[in-house]
Amino acid sequence: MRARAGLVVGMVAILAALVVSITAEHVETRTEAVRNQLLLREIGAVYPGEFDNDPLAERVADAALDLPMTVYPLRSKGELVGAAVVSTTPDGYGGPIALAVGMTVDGAVTGVRVISHKETIGVGDRIDQGNSDWLALFSGRSLEGSSSAGWKVTRDGGSFDELSGATVSSAAVVRAVHRMLRAYDTNRDRLQRGSADRRAASGAESSTDQPAGR
Question: 0.90 exceeded by the pTM?
Fold first, then answer.
């Protein structure tokens, strides 16, 4: 009788563990799906143009600039039309600032969004697009249009006006956007080669689908 009871308890424990494992896996899957949806929304917010690829599947990680970031290529009919770069800079006044930057294929900024931050309410949090239009200063900027020295706030001798009372927060964003543009520039040839490879693969598939000549 005791053996049977022990067997039942053991089976219940195994089933419980299995249920917990399946539930955890399901939750993680849903969480990942939600994260991906939010990321795609951020990419769409900083890049207003059309693209038809899955940028998440083609992402390129870049840590060459001592700041981990991810470059998401944006393609239309196989052609590279732009990119979005997502990164977190650790040097905000209140802590890390996560950003998304969209750009044209030539590297001109199409939009910048703050994804998350811990800046002081009413002061540094004005870097957030919901609290001011300061991020609009970046629109149209590129590496070619500004010298490296210009990618600083005016207080440090650069060309970007800082938010009053929030110089540290402003400077952190300017530096981060500059590094993100450089990350795209570093990987641009690789991304464009990827476009050529996709066109070649698409052409090969099309020719394969054609009926054989007689």
Answer: no
